[in-house]
Specification:
Blueprint (H helix, E strand, L loop, with lengths): L3 H9 L4 E6 L3 H15 L5 H4 E5 L5 H9 L8 E6 L14 H9 L5 E6 L9 H8 L3 E3 L5 H14 L3 E2 L1 H11 L3 H15 L4 E2 L1 H7 L4 H13 L3 H14 L4 H23 L4 H8 L3 H11 L4 H19 L5 H13 L2
Parallel strand pairs: 1-4, 1-5, 2-3, 3-4, 6-7
């Protein structure tokens, strides 16, 4: 179920049974958990009516005992189990999945159980299928497009500032769409602009350092558009200002060209963005960017780019060329495809 419906349920207060929180967007997932705790648990009785359990090393009886404890001076008791090992596909001798599932089905109405997954989830598990069938499995995906822009704009407005549509796009290009990262950068930007009301592109340039992944996107964009001077400038910023070593950058360039090639081949077979993301086990945001970049290259050019990366890797390791010089030569050659 879409997690946006979850916030409505939180406000309505009609909590019962077992819930599953999972997905890659950690910021909103944690917000949802915080709001749930706030809505369900009286702070003065939290020690009695709330339990949080580490699910990476726990036996089933411990979970059941926590769920069987009756609430004190309240209608509900909230139990949160984080990162239950059997949900991410790892075997666990301490948890019998069939027994746990049978318990969940008959769990006391005075208990609300939340299974909270910070990392992966195996959707083949019986517990996931059951909770999903009851409509209480909530997947938290990274915000995209209009939803992401709206979230950033509203966050800035709540702090009494404003930011233009173009500035939001510029910020996302530098940081990506992980809300933890964006939130941290917005806090710095809001502090930086001070009395000024607007966060503009100039402020973003001053404060926000692009992630390595985003810089590689920019680098490949410049290569695809045959802007060698821009590509070399991005490379220089990574090495000189960002302190990145040349060899990991080469690995990231090769990885990016491999992803673009795979995306292009899948798209030509008729697959859409979501299916490609699943097949390549990548975030939709990454696949969207790769599909956009794929328009700048032919399949032959992408294969040639990968070949150049492999040659550079060999020449660097055998001492035939300096690593930064090898990267510059790759960029020049690719821009002259």
């Amino acid at each position: 179920m879409d997690y946006r419906k979850l916030f409505k349920e939180i406000d309505q207060g009609n909590w019962q049974g077992v819930y599953l929180f999972f997905g890659e967007e950690q910021y909103i997932k944690q917000q949802a958990l915080n709001k749930t705790i706030e809505a369900m648990v009286d702070p003065s009785l939290k020690d009695l009516n709330y339990a949080q359990i580490d699910g990476t090393d726990v036996d089933l009886d411990t979970i059941i005992n926590a769920c069987e404890t009756l609430p004190f001076m309240a209608d509900k008791r909230l139990v949160v189990v984080k990162d239950l090992s059997i949900l991410n596909g790892r075997s666990d001798d301490n948890i019998d999945e069939d027994r746990f599932l049978e318990y969940i089905k008959k769990m006391s109405e005075t208990t609300c159980l939340i299974l909270y997954c910070r990392n992966g989830l195996d959707k083949r598990k019986k517990i996931y299928k059951y909770i999903n069938k009851t409509g209480k499995a909530f997947e938290f995906n990274h915000l995209m497009g209009r939803d992401l822009y709206t979230w950033i704009n509203q966050t800035v407005e709540h702090q009494g500032k404003k930011i233009s549509y173009n500035a939001i796009g510029y910020l996302v290009d530098r940081v990506g769409n992980d809300l933890n990262d964006i939130s941290n950068e917005l806090k710095k930007l809001i502090s930086y602009v001070g009395p000024s009301r607007e966060i503009d592109i100039k402020a973003i340039d001053q404060i926000v350092t692009p992630t390595l992944e985003q810089s590689i996107f920019q680098l490949v964009d410049a290569i695809g558009e045959k802007r060698s001077s821009q590509a070399l400038m991005v490379l220089g910023n990574l090495i000189n200002d960002g302190g990145q070593a040349a060899f990991p950058i080469l690995a990231m360039i090769a990885r990016q060209f491999r992803l673009i090639l795979q995306c292009k081949e899948y798209r030509e077979k008729g697959y859409n963005q979501n299916i490609i993301a699943t097949k390549l086990n990548q975030r939709p945001f990454v696949i969207k960017k790769c599909l956009s970049q794929a328009r700048n290259f032919t399949i032959e050019q992408l294969k040639k780019g990968l070949e150049l990366c492999l040659q550079a890797d060999y020449h660097i390791k055998t001492g035939k060329i300096q690593d930064s010089m090898a990267l510059e030569l790759i960029i020049i050659k690719m821009c002259n495809f």
